[in-house]
Amino acid sequence: MFDSSVDSSATELIISSVIPLMSGHSLPVLGLGVYQNDECFDSCMTAFNAGYRLVDSARYYNNEAQVGKAVRESGVRREKLFVISKIYHPDFGYESALRATDESYEKFGLDYIDLYLIHSPLSGKERRLETWRALIEQRDRGKFKSIGVSNYNIRHIEEIREAGLELPVMNQLEIHPFCQQRAIVKYCGEKNIIVQAYCPLVRGDYNHPTLKDLAIKYQKTIPQLLIRWSLQHGFSSLPKSSNANHIRENSQVFDFKINLDDMAMIDALDRGDQGACQWNPIHAE
C-alpha cells in the first residue's frame, strides 16, 4: 500500500467514487467525521450538499440521532448515503452488544445502518469475539449491511480468523503522514479488508515544512493535500470538521493529483507509533 510507485488514483477519483467491500456493498472514498460534534445535523447537511455521501458516527459520539435526522431530511435517496457507527468497549459482550446495537439502530431511525464497527480492541479477546458474534447476528437480522472493526492490530483480526468467524470488511485506523500503520495496512490489503483513515488532518497538528511547500506547489491547503495523499493511497478518508467552510473545502480534492515523487516525500514523514495524535489502542491486550 505504501509503495509510492503504486498510485491508487490511476483510475481518476471523483467525489462519488466508491471502494467495493467484501460484503458486496460499496464504501464512499470521502466521508465526514462527526466526533466531538454533538449537534452535527447542520454539518451533515452541509456535507451532503457538498457531495459527501458518507458520515462516520459512533455511540460514544452521542450524535447518532442527529446523523439519522440529517439522512432522513437530506433529500438524497437513502441508498446513495452511507452511515457508519461503532460500539464502544463498555458495551462489549454478546448480550450487552445486542442491547447497545439495538439502541444505536433505534437512535438513527433508519431502516438499516450501512456499516457497524467494533470501536476498539479494548476489553480482551473473549469479549471482543462475543461482540463480533453479536454484530454478525445483527447484520444477519438486516439491521446492518456490513460489519467491521476499528483500531484493530493484526493479532486482533487474526483471533477472529482463528475462531472460524468471517473477517471484517473494514478496519478504521488513525492514518496520516506521521502515523502510517504500514504493517497493519499491508496485512489488511492481503486479506481484502478495506482501510479507512481517521484523523487524516492530524487534528490540525500539521505544521511541517514539507507539507507547507507542497501545498504551495499544488495551490491547495495543507488539509486538502493530506486528504488527497490519503485517497491516493487507496484509503477511504474521514476528515472531521464542524466548520461549514472547512467541510466544503475538504471536499475540493478531486481536481489535482500529487505526483509520485511528492507522494514519496510525504510518505517519508512517518514516525510510527510516535506519530499518533492521541488515542491509538492498537496494542491493547
Topology diagram in text:
Layout: E1 18-20, E2 26-28, E3 32-33, H1 41-50, E4 54-56, H2 64-73, E5 82-87, H3 94-108, E6 113-118, H4 125-140, E7 144-150, H5 154-162, E8 170-174, H6 182-190, E9 194-198, H7 209-218, H8 222-232, E10 236-238, H9 244-250, H10 260-267
Parallel strand pairs: 3-4, 4-5, 5-6, 6-7, 7-8, 8-9, 9-10
Antiparallel strand pairs: 1-2
What report would you give on this structure?
The chain has 285 residues and is of the alpha/beta class. The chain has a single domain (20-283), classed as NADP-dependent oxidoreductase domain (TIM Barrel, Alpha-Beta Barrel). It contains ten helices and ten strands. It has helices at residues 41-50, 64-73, 94-108, 125-140, 154-162, 182-190, 209-218, 222-232, 244-250, 260-267, and strands at residues 18-20, 26-28, 32-33, 54-56, 82-87, 113-118, 144-150, 170-174, 194-198, 236-238. Strands 3-4-5-6-7-8-9-10 form an eight-stranded parallel beta sheet. β1 (18-20) and β2 form a beta hairpin. The chain is globular, with a radius of gyration of 18 Å. The protein starts with 17 loop residues before the first strand and ends in an 18-residue tail after the last helix. 46% of the residues are buried. Residues 1-6 have low confidence and may be disordered.
